[in-house]
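## tool: complex_structure
## caller: assistant
## args:
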Amino acid sequence: MAQITRDEVAHVARLARLLLTDEEIDTFTEQLGKVLDHARDVEALDVADVPPTAHPYPLVNVVRPDEEVPCLDRDVVLAGAPDTEGGLFRVPPVLGDAP
Amino acid sequence: MTAPAQSALDIAAEVRSGERPAGDVVDEHLAAIEAREHEIHAFNLVLADQAREAAVAIDRRVAAGEDPGPLAGVPVALKDNICTEGIPTTCSSRILEGWRPPYAATVVERLAEAGAIVIGKTNLDEFAMGSSTENSAFGPTRNPHDTTRVPGGSSGGSAAAVAAGFAGLALGSDTGGSIRQPAALCGVVGMKPTYGRVSRYGLVAFASSLDQIGPLSRSVADAAALYEAIAGHDPRDTTSIPERVGDVSAALAEGVAGLRVGVVTELCEAEGIQADVLARVRQAIDALEHAGAKVEDVSVPAVVYGLTAYYLINPAEASSNLARYDGVRYGLRVDAPTTGEMYDRTRTAGFGAEVERRIMLGTYALSAGYYDAFYGKAQRVRTLIIRDLDAAYERFDVLVGPTAPSTAFPFGAKTADPLTMYLNDVCTIPSNLSGHPAISVPFGAGDDGLPVGVQVMAPALGEATMFRAAAAIEAAAPGGGDDA
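## result:
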């Protein structure tokens, strides 16, 4: 496992939609580096044949009958939104958003 | 420390018999809050009016000869990441400040059915990320035993509320020790149920394969009663366990004669465990042996990798779960000319440093090229830890060790380096990774006079046996931290 770089931290911040200052990028590079360094303790473990655990309890295919049940009232849900219009969530223009 | 030390079950018994009105109970607790909350800051919100109204309803039921529920009149403090309908639920984050959930968590409904009275919403590390409540956007909670020290976290407000007598009971959430560690540092009982035992419907998601709601209380019997009130299947949580919850309270008096107790070597020797904390743990283990338990040391080798597995899996799940805070559907929005910039500005303004750090770590661990090396490997190591614990439970009914490496530490002592803070969770993390139940029981004090917690762990659905061992430790405990 290579050391995390400043460029990678800046890239990850963009993926996570966080605006970090240069100083914050420096701090995170150092701090994430320390945590990932500690994670090197598992490097020597051969776990290729060990299945991964995503969930601690073996529940599969939890289904319910396909019947109509009451759900939250639309107006109640929209009341918590920063901006709404005509029963919908309203957002600023989407176009112009650089990738 | 002067605080109402009455057990929740005693309060409920007096209210149920009509001997003491629930209204008086609520008023006494509100008076305790009034007297000391300014120095403790256990609450983000005190619900005085709602609590008084609920008390009136309870007293009316008692007067009418109806059953007001097993926890009738007991004031309960709720961690502020548990949704209350129409009442602000902040997760101690700016990004949810002022948001009022459109529904209540299942546990809140079950508390009401049991006659318990919600008295307030308690402070936490932002989104439950932390071990000291220093990460709250609204300022830290102070330890009632020593206000220059942290209460632990992330359920620090709930632990402090119970320790200070602001509430008879509290609910917290435990993702890597967030109920048990603050319970240990505040000298109260804190329990994490088996994953899936208590519905997570209405608990704001942090790390979904690890999160579990559980009780904090001043006695083991109180914790068992609150656990019974909130546990059980809920069709609204797909990870909810269908099997019936047994009567764990009835098991408390069974004692520990013949119980096979394993002392986990790796947890007793973990990095940073204080000698005085370990001495108290050894004393509790001796007490179990004296009470008839068969005690032996046991090695659970893979738990030494718990911290690594946890601090990759937890941020990975957190980064996914917290993607929902985008300024569209609820909470904070910082205006911008385009939606993309609105996302960026909202999230940057709304999240504190530790939340950003976890999101960054998780996004990195899940990103292309690193997924297998970090997240994938952590999931496989998680399997190793579960296998080793399962092997130990073939020979032992319960496992014991310390809850936290140290007693309550001063503010700022562990904030400079995130890894130092993460090491607080080293003893509690294994039970979250395995989904097993675990409980912290106060057992005397360290050299500094501050409370020490002993942890009892059990296999999945082993709550009844775990509570039995906890009760035996409680019975032998040398008094609270202040008496030492």
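## assistant note: Residues 372-395 of chain B form the longest helix (24 residues). The two ends of chain B are 13 Å apart (CA to CA). Handing back to user.
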